[in-house]
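Please decode residue identities from the backbone states below.
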């Protein structure tokens, strides 16, 4: 439970916002509890996952070379790849509330998110090709 002084500060804040409920301690404590729960949910600790960039880049190169595209088209695809990786990794990190390390940077204990991130990269590459 919050201390009495923090409770009275909270009541005064409600009062300045025009709330008439500041006299009802049960309602005020309920609002305060909901705010604390929201803060705890939002500030949960992030976990670490790994992403095998070397493998992903090797797959990208192999597939690009197998398509036997003209050199200028290869340059365009090659230029889009880093941004697609960054977009996919950022999206995955935000969606799953994680920190992503390259596979070689973590010895053990982290989940491998490579397949999921590779799917996101493929979608990003398709989206940027349009």
């Amino acid at each position: 439970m919050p201390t009495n002084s923090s409770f009275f500060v909270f009541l005064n804040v409600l009062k300045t916002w025009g709330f008439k409920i500041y006299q009802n301690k049960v309602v005020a404590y309920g609002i305060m509890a909901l705010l604390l729960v929201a803060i705890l949910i939002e500030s949960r600790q992030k976990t670490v996952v790994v992403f095998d960039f070397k493998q992903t880049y090797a797959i990208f190169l192999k597939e690009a070379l197998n398509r036997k595209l003209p050199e200028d088209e290869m340059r365009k695809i090659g230029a889009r790849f880093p941004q697609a990786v960054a977009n996919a990794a950022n999206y995955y990190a935000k969606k799953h509330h994680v920190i992503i390390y390259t596979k070689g940077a973590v010895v053990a204990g982290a989940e491998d998110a490579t397949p999921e991130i590779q799917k996101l990269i493929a979608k990003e590459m398709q989206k940027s090709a349009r």
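Observation: Residues 69 and 75 are 10 Å apart (CA to CA).
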